[in-house]
Amino acid sequence: MRTRDRSACLLLRAFYYGHGGDFRLRLWTRKSRGKLLVPLLFLAPALALYAVFFVYPFVFTFLLSFQQWDMINPEKTFVGWDNYSQLMKDDVFWMSLRNTFLYMLMTMPISIAIGLGLALLIESLRGGRAFYRFIFYLPVVSSIAVIAIIWTLMYDDQHGIVNELLAAIGIDGPNWLSQTSSSLWAVAIVGIWKSFGYEMLLFTSGLKAIDRGIYEAASIDGAGRLRKFVHVTLPLLSPITLFIFIMGIISSFQNFALIKIMTGGGPNNSSNVLVYELYQEAFQFFSVGKAAAISILLFLIVMTITLVQLKVSRHTVHYQ
Amino acid sequence: MVRYWRQAEETGKHLLLAALALLSLVPIIWMLSISLRSEEYVFSGHLVWTGPIDWDGYVRALVDIPFFRWFGNSLRIGVLQTAGQLFVGVCAAFAFAYYRFPGRDALFLFVLMTMMIPLQVTLVPTYLIVNQMDALNTFTGVIVPHLASGYVIFLLRQSFLGIPRELAEAATIDGCGPIRTMWTVYVRLSGTMLWTLGVITFLANFNEFNWPLLVLTDPGKMPLPLAFQYFRSETQMDWGATMAVAGLSMLPVLLLYLFAQRHIIDGFAQSGLK
Fold it and tell me: Which structural domain, as residue segments, surrounds residue A44?
């Protein structure tokens, strides 16, 4: 049998059994047309919005990445893989790519560790928990643009407070935002400061979901605090940890405002990240095709990382 | 003996947390401190200063700058966008939670996927579409593209799934049409979640920066964070006034947060997100 006929057969079979063993196309009988219509009506606003502002732009970006356009001239020229090959040869692109990954590695582990530590510490208190959670979540709700400006002044070598505080404990701080070696770290520190509260909250919700009885059982079995933490707490926190990792990585890739306000790409592109380069190409250099190519690459990178994470999670994440 | 050890441990934890909290608040404390200094003390660089408390920065901030206009803009964007997102979200979540129809799970997976794609991937074409709609530099252009929020739909669906189907079925038997069912059963019973989500979404929308940056070019229409940044780059505002504006910008958000923090934090902490 030809492959096409074979697949058709399989499909028909699945359809037959999937519909409870008869060929009446249930989808189209009066009764189930009603079943489909109402929920679709409720979904209509969301689906329409997604279609216009998500699906269409996505396809458009994909197609645009193979063209060259300056957004003003209505004419778009098809250039094939040119945009991509130009990027591959572009030093700025590789720098941005490297910085994006570095930024992710700088912010994620530290803010997750702080979030987890604080969540555990606060949860173990007997009183005042709400107060501490309130304080630590404050940076998260602050406006990022305002925060960026405050920290810019804080990092100032002569007038800022960061180096002054460091000097008080004997460390000679660098000129944070103006040195290529420290600009990315400067932004990363603000990124950590702004997000650990969110991770702390998520971990708190994960901790609260753990049944106290399991700890008691572990105690009876003779487990000390460290053992309980490693063998009870951590595994039971793994679903929320996975969620935090996935969302955390995605949002660290999206970090834009801090770079725009604090460094503008940093001295010599030392703090340029993919999304900022995208912005520059599209809105400063008006080479939209190249920006689109960067978008697609960004998408592929994020998707790959997420899929890898999900795959790894099959072995490491425990669901109750 | 054990009791004293426990007490000491508790106190130790409090001390550690208090120190960390203070450290974490340094930027905000420092901002307030600079905003209250008079010109000559601004750059004395310390956390505390020896001069008098000078409210002049705040006066200049409120008088020389269209602060209330910007605040109004932020409020407008925040309220309208949040209301829109909740409306779209409730309808979609209702469809996902109550009804069974072919393609339901695939569509929901699609919604989840939209949360995972960085904003910037669809940025340029969205901008072009808004341009085509002649909505550049308008509030419509800022609000409409983000009305479908995967985050909102996801959380509302989770919440709706927690409401027993029997209730909705009983309502239908009693003669409620779908809209009435949605309202009286699902919306009415999801009070806490709607509040929590409403506040969180409002805070995010009020503080939004990236998208308004691209869409709004008229300083009169800019929301607080954007206008603040624009003003700083256009004029050389003295730092006292700058920090005063920063402080005033954060104030509404902080007040809302203070007022609603029980909802947010408890909502988060007790939802047992799995």
Answer: 3-64
Length of chain B as a residue count? 274
How far is Cα A257 from Cα A99, in angstroms, rounded to an integer?
15
Give the closest of A35, A136, A164 to B45, CB-based: A164
Residues A97 and A165 in one domain: yes
Please indicate, yes or no, whether residues B48 and B154 belong to a single structural domain of this protein. no
Q: Report the domain count for chain B.
A: 2
Shortest distance, CA B142 to any CA of chain A (angstroms): 12
Domain carrying residue B111? 65-270
CB contact under 8 A, A53 and B126: yes
- Report pLDDT digits (tens) over B47-62: 666 667 777 777 777 7
- How far is A117 from chain B, CA to nearest CA, in Å? 11
Q: Are residues A60 and A101 in the same domain?
A: no
In a domain, B59, yes or no: no
Q: Are A87 and A93 in contact (CB under 8 A)?
A: yes
Whether B75 and B192 share a structural domain:
yes
Chain B hits for A43, CB-CB cut-off 8 Å, are 91-92, 95-96, 107
Whether residues B23 and B70 share a domain: the answer is no
Asked if residue A233 has pLDDT above 70, the reply is yes
Would residue A307 count as lying in a domain?
yes
Confidence band of A19 (pLDDT split at 50, 70, 90) = very low
pLDDT confidence of A98, banded at 50, 70, 90? very high
Position A77 in a domain = no
Nearest-CA residue of chain A relative to B91? A42
pLDDT (0 to 100) of residue A26: 42
Tell me whether residue A69 is in a domain. Answer: no
Is the domain of A162 the same as that of A260? yes
User: Does residue A204 belong to any structural domain of this protein?
Assistant: yes
Spell out the residues 6+ positions from residue A180 whose beta carbon is closer than 8 angstroms to its own: A266, A267, A268, A270
Give the model's confidence band at B268: pLDDT under 50 very low, under 70 low, under 90 confident, else very high.
low
Residue B149 shares a structural domain with residue B168: yes
CA-only gyration radius of chain B, Å: 24
Contacts of B210 in chain A (CB under 8 A): 256-257
Q: Considering the entire predicted model, what is its pTM?
A: 0.80
Phi, psi of A147 (to 5 degrees): -60, -45
Selected residue with higher pLDDT from B134 and A7: B134
Does the structure's ipTM exceed the value 0.90? no
Looking at the fold, whether A92 and A185 belong to one and the same domain comes out as: yes
- Residues with Cβ within 8 Å of B205's Cβ and at least 6 positions away in sequence, in order, are B77, B78, B81, B82, B85
Cβ A35 vs Cβ B101: under 8 Å: yes
Domain harbouring B193, CATH code: 1.10.3720.10
Q: CA-to-CA distance for A12 and A23, rounded, in angstroms?
A: 9
Rounding to the nearest 10 degrees, give the CA dihedral for residues B87, B145, B233, B71.
Answer: -20
Chain A residues with CB-CB distance to B46 below 8 A:
161, 164
- Write the residue in A61, A124, A302 that is nearest to B122 by C-beta: A61
Q: Do B124 and A141 touch (CB under 8 A)?
A: no
Is pLDDT larger for residue A191 or for residue A164? A191
Residues of B in contact with A124 (CB under 8 A): 13
Query: A212 and A88, same structural domain?
Result: yes
Q: Identify from A50, A141, A255, A261 which residue to disrupt to test chain B contact, counting B C-beta atoms within 10 A and taking the largest count.
A: A141
Closest partner CB to B226 (pick from A145, A206, A298) = A145
